[in-house]
Amino acid sequence: MNQGSADIRREPYARSEAEVRRSSGGRERPKKAREPFHALKMQKALSAVSYGQRASIKAKISETESFDDFPLLPMVKESIATQALSGMVDLVPTPIQRLAIPILLGNETRAARRRSAASGKKEMEQFLLAAETGSGKTLAYLLPVLDAIKRAEVIDVELEAQKKIREEEERKKVNFHALEPPPLSNAPHPTTGRPRAIILVPTSELVTQVGNLTKLLSHTVKFRSGLISSAYSGKVIRNRLFAPTGIDVLISTPHLLASISESDPNILSRVSHLVIDEADSLLDRSFAPSTSTVIDKSTPSLQQLILCSATIPRSLDSYLRQRFPDMRRLVTPNLHAIPRRVQLGVVDVEKEPYRGNKILACADTIWSIGKAAAEHAPGDTERADIKRVLVFVNEREKTQEVAEYLTSKGIDAVALNRDTPEQRQSETLGGFTTITPKTAPETAKDASAPRSGPNYIAFNRTASTVTPPPRRHLPNTKVLVTTDLGSRGIDTLAVRHVILYDVPHSTIDFIHRLGRTGRMGRRGRGIVLVGKNDRRDVVREVKEGMFKGQALI
Q: Which Pfam families does the entry mention (predicted)?
């Protein structure tokens, strides 16, 4: 009995190499090669995409060279150059646009519609658009949706004209001498509160971002759009949704739209195209009930269901295979890979001169970035480019602490988290989503203004202390300290530097946070602050994968 207990307590790897050879017949066991991304496999898993499939996709993408190759309506093509991509020199579609737009508009899609119309059985087309961050996924689904809306308008006009002719003929048969009834001036528009297309996004910031792009396109394409979220009052939401002129495209969050549909189910009775943007978020546990409600109520009239995401977690992969087994997946070759144009640097906080002081290392790194900008325009701070820096932390409470410390060191920093009011969130993100190459006179004036006085002290007041005015100020540098709230879908085109104050919890967070820079073909730089308790092996493997251009799976 005692011997058995001793065997149980014996360590499984306590045997010597000689004992191992004897137990294996004198043969040495072959040593296992170290698996690539061993540490990353311990993080939240991503669904793998075979490299054979990636090669075939690359060959297909190379067949398209410009937007003129797409079978879009002339007005939609015109809106690309005049509104959506105005100011860009090379109007070349991105890989996801080359892959998705022809399929959403191509012959196979229209052939399926003809088959379903001929058989009398309606088939809903299901697509998953998966591409790396900053690759133009919004335009990839928005252009085909608008094209379908305009084509449907032509059909509706023809049907309405035929209906009027039939009604006129019936009226004349009944009473030849009857007068034509006057038009009903108070009759609501047939599209009032019944949009043709709905785009669901997880946050009010994304509602504003996608809504602004949609309104830009409406100047040329001529359609009616509306955006609703918790950032607007009930009266504004009601006026936009039930406008007398009707609505074609609605951008909303799932919770709000699902709540409205409970009281007015007719709102989803006309939807032909439903887009689920950031699908990995909208189909997780927090958003899934509301998103599923919108999908279920839209299904009777739905022609296309389009899911869009920058990552495919295994949970999302299994969910789609169960609920949408026929969904067609349009995946770019660089999915789950951080672009090689983004460089990743590592700062060891434990070494000199920081000695474990991570917040000091963060301030010093930002000062180095700001000084590099000033060196390009020495003695002329008003003409120097504004450097915009995103700092990501894991905890919401840490955002305010880091922002206040950076402000005390003369850095223009603000915090953004779930506790920030909606209006201020939009204003804060506005400075990081638009490009202003040179500092405007008002901005330069604000930057050079004395950072003291009652307003300055009141803004930096905490529960028990007051942050004193800094002795020096870093010009032409703006810093936003945020959590994952600022890492999902926000088009931070103006950001060139991302600092990971905390090492992300998962591979997905790595991809989304570093994806805030290097967008739309631009170069970017990420910096990770590694402390004593951080996963150095994860950071090392991410850096190796970025250098080799490999997917982090």
A: DEAD (PF00270), Helicase_C (PF00271)
